[in-house]
Give the backbone structure.
Amino acid sequence: MLDLPAAETLYAALLARDPAYEGRAYVGVTTTGIFCRLTCPARKPRPENCRWFSDPRAAQVAGFRPCRRCWPLGPTAEGDKVVTRLTALLDEDPARRWTEGDLLAMGLDPSTVRRAFRRHFGQSFLQMARAARLRGGMQTLTKGAAMIEAQLDAGFDSASGFRNAFARLFGHPPHRMRGGADLRADWIDTPLGGMIAIADDAALHLLEFIDRKALPEGLHKLSGHVDGRIGLGRSAVTDQVETELAAYFAGRQPRFSVPVALHGTEFQRRVWQRLRTIPAGETRSYAGLAAEIGQPTATRAVARANATNRIALVVPCHRVIGADGSLTGYAGGLWRKEKLIEVEHAYAA
């Protein structure tokens, strides 16, 4: 309890199902012997029947059993049966063209599925399925295949549909990415979803989850640095970051040694470089990070620099949290921040 807010604050968060406390506070209900996330949809207990814990292990040591509705022992999404069912199907057949009719045929309400996926992943299931199909088309283009073949591999009915989806992702149509280039873009799969890596022979310039809303803006700015010469393909740097990402998620390598090129102002680069010194398993507040770079009054500027980081994970902006310990915003989605911090707990241990 020493690391938790007052019981009154926690109870108010429980009533509001406040997601800011995900991963940092749990409630044990003495009348049922069950412990839950504060976001659990179950009926709320009376305040005198609540005990508060900072982690699931403490609740279990105190004799409470995990709730089967909110699944407090794993990442939030893993406790949602609809989400786990559909993500498993997507993994089995990423090229499938899903529709709301498919969901209805499975006995699922499309609006319920949409809300569940947006709550956990920041996007709908159909958007995730479309991104998976786009990945197939991108891989075909990278190999130099004809545009129509890439279109079919991506599962789109028309060339314009594929080009429009591609343009939304990269900021320009695919035919402009097939010539000579200074930087090369390729797809990297991770346990938390697909990422776009852009690198040359010397350094990594961008690493972003494909569903990040600011990805097109980041690609546009990066394109401006090289006069639009971003093509499809990979270099040894891409192979290196892919290998290091796999080792990171497998629990074998907490730090990344891949060289990076940081495109930003002098202040932004100072923030990003400082982020790289935070060990896996540790976090900082925005104010703490501002103090570490010698500018204690620049908390808001540090937060903006954190939000504009274009090299996710390698420059670990997910390790910055609110002063009260809440996860706060993360451009890659709070569900990913929750999972990343959980992965790094093992490194801290």
In short: The first strand starts at residue 26 and ends at 29. The radius of gyration is 22 Å. Residues 77-126 form one domain. The chain has 14 helices and ten strands.
